[in-house]
């Protein structure tokens, strides 16, 4: 495992930057559930490189391919080929999602336009499923609603075990269909609720002021209220599954809201600021790694700003990642501000308040810092618990086990069925 492995050991090597290479893995692995084609993703990577590999090239090529596949979907639907159209719409969604991921957020009109175009394709696909895919609006506060989806295995009102799924700091509620292996949950007889909370794409594009909040139990409480208001939800079998930054959000919710009867944290983040500094010190060019690694806990906010500005100037991927996945979602203006904001995102002292059965997951490719924090959290838990390490030998070592989604989701939902067994 190399010192800069923070997302995955298993690499495609489409780009030397690990973060960008992971985005290709991310898009490609959704092929498991009909959301990608190997040939198309390889073509996209090569075409981006052929054009020069700039941020604009990255956005343009993903957009062009997404729009091309959307035309194929529309044509197939016009011919009555519903299954073909559904797959094309899913792929169009995924490729446009990839374009939106690194879009210039300071161009809000264009940014939101490409986001809505991606969602439109997902919704078109949803209409073509054999199972119900219900688009929902969850009452939140001050008249604002959180967008989401409710999926269930059959068109009836039978109360079923239900899993609420939360993504992370770059989360799309629609993308959770793929990254959380929703088809595997449905095939096991589970209902699934996906949503965009504060700080996540669907809500940020509507209300840019609604950034992440450390008291996640407030917005999640509204989601739980909504779930329990439905006659097709068994309130005694309600689970919460958090991925990426959801590994902070969902344990926090389980500590405060006892209506949650099972928790999956993939992976737990007990102290976000410490976790962030550990991860940041392991990435980037040699100059950044050397300074950040030695001085991570000694640098002032302004000193961090200078160092991170150099990192952002070194590669557009770092610039876009910091801007879109950190500053936008937190409301921070600088990286120093972001570190100050992150101080309140801690689970320390809450572990013993979690009483429901809990599955903790960690991936070998996410580096030693992530594994350390997961094991610290797991050791403190007093609830019934299980720890699973997603391994290189299984091809599931990437962030959240995304590189082998079928394997990861099988582990999650089989464990959940065990917990909810009569």
Task: Characterize the structure shown.
The chain has 422 residues and is an alpha/beta fold. It folds into 3 domains: 12-129, Up-down Bundle (de novo design (two linked rop proteins)); 132-271 and 345-422, Alpha/Beta hydrolase fold, catalytic domain (Rossmann fold); 273-342, no CATH class. The chain has helices spanning 18-29, 38-51, 55-78, 82-101, 108-126, 176-179, 182-187, 201-206, 217-228, 246-256, 272-280, 286-295, 301-314, 316-330, 335-342, 367-380, 405-419; strands at 133-139, 145-151, 160-166, 191-195, 233-243, 262-266, 358-363, 385-390. It has an 8-stranded mixed β-sheet, sandwiched between helices. α10 links the parallel β5 and β6 (262-266). The radius of gyration is 20 Å and the shape is globular. The protein starts with 17 loop residues before the first helix and ends with a helix.
Keyphrases for this structure?
17 helices; 422 residues; Rossmann fold; de novo design (two linked rop proteins); alpha/beta; eight-stranded mixed beta sheet; globular
Strand-helix topology:
Layout: H1 18-29, H2 38-51, H3 55-78, H4 82-101, H5 108-126, E1 133-139, E2 145-151, E3 160-166, H6 176-179, H7 182-187, E4 191-195, H8 201-206, H9 217-228, E5 233-243, H10 246-256, E6 262-266, H11 272-280, H12 286-295, H13 301-314, H14 316-330, H15 335-342, E7 358-363, H16 367-380, E8 385-390, H17 405-419
Parallel strand pairs: 3-4, 3-5, 5-6, 6-7, 7-8
Antiparallel strand pairs: 1-2, 2-4
Helix pairs in contact: 2-3, 3-4, 4-5, 9-10, 13-14, 13-15
């Amino acid at each position: 495992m190399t010192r800069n492995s923070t997302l995955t050991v298993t690499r495609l090597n489409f780009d030397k930057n690990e973060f960008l290479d992971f985005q290709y893995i991310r898009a490609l692995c959704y092929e498991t559930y009909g959301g990608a084609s190997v040939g198309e993703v390889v073509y996209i990577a090569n075409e981006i490189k052929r054009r020069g590999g700039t941020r604009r090239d990255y956005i343009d090529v993903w957009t062009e391919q997404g729009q091309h596949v959307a035309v194929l979907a529309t044509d197939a639907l016009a011919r009555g080929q519903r299954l073909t159209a559904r797959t094309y719409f899913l792929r169009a969604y995924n490729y446009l999602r990839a374009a939106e991921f690194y879009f210039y957020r300071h161009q809000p009109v264009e940014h939101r336009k490409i986001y809505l175009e991606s969602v439109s394709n997902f919704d078109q696909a949803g209409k073509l499923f054999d199972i119900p895919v219900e688009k929902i609006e969850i009452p939140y506060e001050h008249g604002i609603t959180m967008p989401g989806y409710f999926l269930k295995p059959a068109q009836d009102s039978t109360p079923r075990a239900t899993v609420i799924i939360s993504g992370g700091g770059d989360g799309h509620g629609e993308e959770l269909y793929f990254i959380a292996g929703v088809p595997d949950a449905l095939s096991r007889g589970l209902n699934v609720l996906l949503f965009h909370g504060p700080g996540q794409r669907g809500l940020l594009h509507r209300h840019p002021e609604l950034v992440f909040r450390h008291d996640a139990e407030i917005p999640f409480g509204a989601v739980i209220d909504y779930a329990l208001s439905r006659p097709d939800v068994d309130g005694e079998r309600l689970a919460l599954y958090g991925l990426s930054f959801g590994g902070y959000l969902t344990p926090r919710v389980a500590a405060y809201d006892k209506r949650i009867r099972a928790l999956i944290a993939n992976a737990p983040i007990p102290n976000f600021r410490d976790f962030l500094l550990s991860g940041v010190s392991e990435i980037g060019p040699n100059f950044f790694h050397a300074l950040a690694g030695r001085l991570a806990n000694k640098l002032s906010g302004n000193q961090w700003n200078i160092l991170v500005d150099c990192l952002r100037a070194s590669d557009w991927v770092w610039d876009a990642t910091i801007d879109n996945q950190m500053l936008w979602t937190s409301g921070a203006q600088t990286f120093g501000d972001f570190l100050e904001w992150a101080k309140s995102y801690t689970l320390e002292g809450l572990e013993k308040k979690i009483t429901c059965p809990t599955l903790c997951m960690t991936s070998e490719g996410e580096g030693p810092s992530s594994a350390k924090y997961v094991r610290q959290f797991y050791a403190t838990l007093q609830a019934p618990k299980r720890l699973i390490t997603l391994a290189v030998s299984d091809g599931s070592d990437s962030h959240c086990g995304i590189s082998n989604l079928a394997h990861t989701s099988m582990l999650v939902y089989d464990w959940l069925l065990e917990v909810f067994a009569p």
